Amino acid sequence: MRLRSLSKNLLLRVLVAIVLGIGFGLFFPEWLARVFMTFNGIFSQFLGFLIPLIIVGLVTPAIADLGKGAGKWLAATAAMAYGSTVFAGLLAFLVAKSTYPWLLGGHTAVDGLENPEEHALSGYFDITMPPVFDVMTALVLSFCLGVGITFVRGTTLHQGFGELRTIVMRIVEKIIIPLLPIYIFGMFLSLTMNGQIVLVISTFLRVVILAFVMTVVILLIQYTIAGVVTKRNPLVLLKNMLPAYATALGTSSSAATIPVTLECTRRNGVDERVAGFTVPLCATIHLSGSTMKIVLFSLAIMTISGMPINTWQYVGFIFLLGVTMVAAPGVPGGAIMAAVAILQSSLGFDETAVGLMIATYVAIDSFGTACNVTGDGAIAAIMNRILTGKDGTLRNAPPVPAQ
Q1: Which of 18-22, 79-83, 278-282, 326-330 has the lowest mean pLDDT?
Q2: Cα–Cα nearest to 61, from 133, 167, 132
Q3: Which of 70, 207, 315, 321 to pair with 23, CA 20 to 30 A apart?
Q4: If you average pLDDT over every residue of the chain, what do you get?
Q5: Measured on CA atoms in the order 267, 268, 271, 274, is the torsion positive or negative?
């Protein structure tokens, strides 16, 4: 069964899972909810174990397929991802600076906020599945092996990684995608039964609404640029990415959404080899939505608590944040945990401010992740246009290996 047929109705199933999770969370007994938390814990562990293998299994053969020009394409993709991330941060900063004086004027109700994850329901038991290596190691290893294969005359290693790609995709088809709606149901069931999320959203409701509006604006800008470059309707490109957006909304994980993002980019006409190269890479290094959220909520906390805001110091923080986001694991809450150190060193956040930051970020983590993932599709479309010659064939790439 092909991934396309498995993900055909995924958007509907994810939306149903979200609605049911919220609805059942209003009356589910705790003992029954913990059954789903047990499943989510095991499934999350399996995802964490599989994510580095997905990256190696997809990125390595994709780089090898691109040929000896792969290094340039890696640099181009990384530059676009970094530029998009920094742009989102700067845009959020300008919007916050111009609106917060009246939007948050006199608003100081931040007492009682705690990290929602500390109040989340736990499963009955857990099974630990440590990954073979971490995400950054997987990316570096994939790049070294992929580029190295392009300089080797033999085909054994190239074919071997092609077979690894097939194995990884079979696992995705048979296990990950069919079980994603159940995992998403459990996520929203836990969030609904967790009283802290209601407190966080009610306290920062205006900032939450502004973050949603900024998400739409950022995606429209990204896909307008992609539409101009590819000479296609940007709204059609964006519509084709909705299953990935909904899946990321439920999983709060860019990495867990990679299989769905890959399929959505293919629907936009992106070559399979380009998609296999850009999507897993951008899932780790392109965090425009997460950066936008961190900027909006950090400035809100600074405004409410009366902390001084130095424009140039904060701009420097945004550029540094763009680099730091590369090290953020593509798992729920990964971005904010990677950003804690520079929030303290660059902006002077103390323990209380960091706690507030984690609470606000985790509460609506999935919306930033969904923005990240959907934006990956725009970068993939642009890269596909850059890599495609006038005759419609991919530059510097051999035919797709037989699978």
Answers
A1: 326-330
A2: 167
A3: 207
A4: 79
A5: negative
- Residues shown for the chain: 403
Residue 388 sits at φ, ψ, to 5 deg, of -95, 130
Mind spelling out the 3-state secondary structure of the chain?
A: CCHHHHHCCHHHHHHHHHHHHHHHCCCCCHHHHHHHHHHHHHHHHHHHHHHHHHHHHHHHHHHHHHHHHHHHHHHHHHHHHHHHHHHHHHHHHHHHHHHHHHHCCCCCCCCCCCCHHHHCCCCCCCCCCCCCCCHHHHHHHHHHHHHHHHCCCCCHHHHHHHHHHHHHHHHHHHHHHHHHHHHHHHHHHHHHHCHHHHHHHHHCHHHHHHHHHHHHHHHHHHHHHHHHHHCCCHHHHHHHCHHHHHHHHHHCCCCCCHHHHHHHHHHCCCCHHHHHHHHHHHHHHCCHHHHHHHHHHHHHHHHHHCCCCCHHHHHHHHHHHHHHHHHCCCCCCHHHHHHHHHHHHHHCCCHHHHHHHHHHHHHCHHHHHHHHHHHHHHHHHHHHHHHECCCCCECCCCCCCCC
**What radius of gyration, in Å, describes the C-alpha atoms of the chain?**
21
Q: What's the CA gap between 329 and 326, in Å, rounded?
A: 8
How far is 180 from 148, CA to CA, in rounded Å? 35
Which of 126-130, 287-291, 363-367 shows the lowest mean pLDDT across its residues?
363-367
Summarised one tens digit per residue, pLDDT across range 109-121 is: 555 455 555 556 7
Cα 342 to Cα 187, 253, 286, 291, 297, distances in angstroms? 29, 22, 18, 13, 15
Q: For residue 52, what are its two tokens?
A: 């580095």
